[in-house]
Structure formats: structure tokens, C-alpha cells
Amino acid sequence: MLNEKVLKKISGIIPSDRLMRDEPMSRHTSFRIGGPAALFVQVNNEEELAGVLAALNKEQAEFIIAGNGSNLLVSDEGYPGVIVKLGGDFEEIAVDAENECIVTAGAAKILSSVSAFLTERGLSGFEFASGIPGSIGGAVFMNAGAYGGEIKDIAKSVRLMDISCGAAYDVSAKDMKFGYRMSRAQTGDVVILSVTLELKEDDPAAIAERVAELAAKRNAKQPVNYPSAGSTFKRPVGGYAAALIEEAGLKGYRAGGACVSEKHAGFVINYEGASCEDVLNVMRHVREMVYEKSGIMLEPEVRLINCSL
């Protein structure tokens, strides 16, 4: 049950058109899966976010800060707390007035949109991320990477908000403690507000050509025509999840409406009206069989919400 005190407090901060009760999370995840969130809230600036966090903390309410939902698997039962989504000011992007190679993007800005902005201005270094689904905040959270590049390679600084007190501040990329699909934001004590990138000047046509080449590679190798959360499992030490899954003979393995992609074994896809439990059953079987064959226990890269393996 949603705490009515929480709803009352948040209603005094956020307009009703950005407050949704029992909102299906299938509308807000790239998997197109997930039951209702008790309350779904969109905050459009730092002041609103700080106010909402204060209300949630005071009532000790359960909540999650969500980006574009491209790395979430939400339970069929939904989420009993509050989903806080960033929008408005957090979707802005701007070039530094003194250095055109420095660009700041709000956490809710979609990666493809960031890529288009940078390409048009002849700023290179972001090409690897151009086809990754999701928001740049989520990419920073996961230190997203592809084709030899990672967010840590181009991040100069990150603006954060302390979840406990609502204070906003900037930290250097070094202080983000980036690692493989890791950042300090995963400790759960901060929200990513924006990221400042340091890029290099290049010919816009050359950048566009590289973006197009990477898009062609992605489309050829990945099941982009099916809902998914991208790579389902993290890359284990000394190997690749997709290779281990394929070696275990699991390409095409199906449970209900979910299956291991025939195109890329690293993806579990929503093949046909999959439920969260269908995806979990595929993931469980994959982990069991890969461990049996290789002795390696795969760890999920997808973020599990109100569910577990």
C-alpha cells in the first residue's frame, strides 16, 4: 500500500500531471515488462528532486531513481514504492562557453540524442555510445561501454545529489570510482544529475560515418528488433558471457515468451509477450547450465526490481 502521507507531501511539490498511481512499468522499460509502481513521479529540476527526496526520507518510503528503464527488469507484481524519473531540466545539454570541447548533459538526456548533438558540432569521442539505448545518467551509473570505449574515458566530472539531504555537488570523474559496469553511484547514496564530457574536435562527416558504421555493426549482431535490456549478464573475468552461453548450447533457449537471442547469446529478449518470470526462468537456466559446463557463475547486468534469481 502506498503511504498516503508520502502522496500528500509529494503532491505539494509535483503537479498532478506528473504523478501517476499504479503506473504499469511495462510502459517505462525497454523490456516492455513490469507490473504497476504504487507511485510514479517525474521531477523536472534539482529543487523538485530535493523536495521529493526529503518527503520520501521523512516517511522512510521505499523508492527507486529510474532513468530510461533500459536496464531494468521489474517484477510482474510491480513495485510497492515510488519510482522517481528525471525529466525537464535533466534533459538539457549545453556546450561550455569557454571551451567548445566541454559539454554538459543532463542525466535524462537520451544517448542517441547526445550523439546527434555532438556529431553536428564536430565533437568526437562519444561514438561508441551512440547506439546504446537509455539515458546518459544510466550510462554513467553503469559506466556503459561498447566497441572499446567507456563513459569513464570521456567523463570530466559528474554532478550528484546526496539522497539523504538533497545537497547537489560536483565530483571529478576520478572520484566516481568507475570500473567495469560500475560507478560509485551504485552505492545507492547519490543521484546522478548530469555529466560533463571532454571531447575532441573532428570533422562532423567523419564522426557521422563512424556512428553509422557502429550502428550497422550493432544492427547486424544484436537483436535490436526485440525488447530487451541489452546485455543480460556481466562479462566474467577472462571470458565473455555470450560465448559461454553459446558454448552451453543455449542460443534460442525459451521459457514462455522470453528466450536467449538466436542472433546474440548475450541477450535475453522479450520474444512474445514475456513476463518477468519468463525472463527470470531463462536467466536461471542459463546460469545453471553455464556453471555446470564452465564452472563460471554469471552475474546479472540487468537491474532486478522487486524480483530475484
Q: What do these coordinates show?
A:
27% of the residues lie in helices and 25% in strands. It has a five-stranded antiparallel beta sheet, covered by helices on one side. The chain has a four-stranded mixed beta sheet with strand order 1-2-5-3, with helices on one face. It is built from seven helices and 18 strands. It is α+β, with helices and mostly antiparallel strands and 309 residues long.
List the helices and strands and how they pair.
Elements: H1 4-11, E1 19-24, E2 36-43, H2 46-58, E3 63-66, E4 72-74, E5 79-86, E6 93-95, E7 102-106, H3 111-120, E8 123-124, H4 136-142, E9 145-146, E10 149-150, E11 155-162, E12 168-172, E13 190-198, E14 200-201, H5 204-221, H6 241-247, E15 254-255, E16 258-260, E17 268-270, H7 276-294, E18 303-305
Parallel strand pairs: 2-5, 3-5, 4-18
Antiparallel strand pairs: 1-2, 6-7, 7-13, 8-14, 9-10, 11-12, 11-13, 15-16, 16-17
